[in-house]
Write a structure and sequence with these properties.
Elements (H helix, E strand, L loop, with lengths): L4 H8 L7 E2 L9 E4 L8 E5 L4 H9 L4 E4 L19 H13 L2 E4 L2 H4 L1 E2 L2 H9 L6 E4 L4 E10 H12 L5 E3 L5 E7 L7 H10 L4 E4 L7 H10 L5 E4 L2 H19 L4 E4 L10
Parallel strand pairs: 3-4, 3-13, 4-5, 10-11, 11-12
Antiparallel strand pairs: 1-6, 2-5, 7-8, 8-10, 9-12
Length: 272
């Protein structure tokens, strides 16, 4: 029996082994962004963000189903805003998608709603910190390292494990930290992130991204006051890439007769 896009979607809607599914919420951004569910699947590609380049690479791999964590037209909830209509970048990407016939499915909310959150858990796994988890909450995880380490040592470990050319941080690179908070994606805003310092007692907080005038300014003020909190800013994609890679591996196990490829989104923001 040939595999259809709907078969893959159905599998993605089910909790992966070892995870418990949570109740669905009203506003769910998951769903088909291009193509139809009855399309037969030749190959599958999984990515964090379906950029123009990623779509081209998926087509080169003969993957006609692309599973992306983020949207394709530069907005979390809007498929294509009115401002984009007529924009040459939007039009070129739309033409690539339509002319190729590639099917694109957004898989964002479901993995975040498993318990534990697959995206956060996979980042913890990529850092080899699973044994140090003391609390796995719905939107953050707390780890307690066996011993306190200098910030510079922790930063180098993260860079090595995640293959990062650089890591942005705020804090004293010589200070010692043991209790670390981890939150991925856009969960670095002040309302969500700042209470982790007080409520969970974290000494170092690792975030994906968030408004730079919120949590980073709070940490900066703590340093000026001699309290000395530490913040690592991984970047949105860096914090969630391990989770999408894990989803790709799970799909390959589920559908061994179809080639499943993980395509890293890469770093579009460079340092000069």
């Amino acid at each position: 029996m040939r595999l259809t896009v709907q078969d893959v979607i159905q599998r993605l809607a089910e909790p992966t082994a070892g995870w418990e599914g949570l109740a669905q919420q009203d506003q769910n951004v998951d769903g088909l962004l291009a193509g139809t569910p009855d399309t037969f699947v030749r190959g599958i590609a999984v990515t964090f963000c379906a950029s123009h380049d990623v779509i081209q690479r998926a087509l080169e791999l003969d993957a006609n189903l692309l599973i992306t964590h983020e949207g394709i037209y530069y907005s979390h909830r809007i498929q294509a805003s009115a401002e984009l209509i007529g924009d040459p970048v939007y039009k070129a990407k739309q033409e690539l998608i339509h002319s190729s016939g590639i099917v694109i499915y957004r898989h964002h909310d479901a993995p975040h709603r498993y318990s534990p959150d697959i995206i956060t858990h996979s980042l913890v796994t990529a850092l080899d910190w699973e044994a140090y988890v003391i609390s796995a909450m719905s939107t953050s995880t707390i780890v307690l390292l066996p011993e306190a380490l200098p910030v510079a040592v922790i930063a180098n470990l993260i860079k090595k494990k995640l293959h990062l050319p650089y890591l942005r941080y705020i804090g004293d690179h010589q200070s010692l930290c043991r209790r670390i908070g981890i939150t991925v994606g856009y969960r670095g805003g002040g309302t969500h992130a700042i209470p982790l310092f007080q409520d969970e007692g974290v000494e170092l907080l690792m975030i994906g991204e968030g408004p730079e005038w919120e949590t980073p300014e709070y940490v900066g003020d703590s340093i000026a006051q001699g309290i000395g909190k530490v913040l690592f800013l991984l970047g949105h994609a860096v914090s969630e890439e391990p989770g999408m890679a894990a989803i790709a591996r799970g799909l390959q196990d589920d559908f061994p007769d179809v080639s499943v490829h993980y395509i890293p989104s890469g770093y579009s923001i460079q340092v000069v």
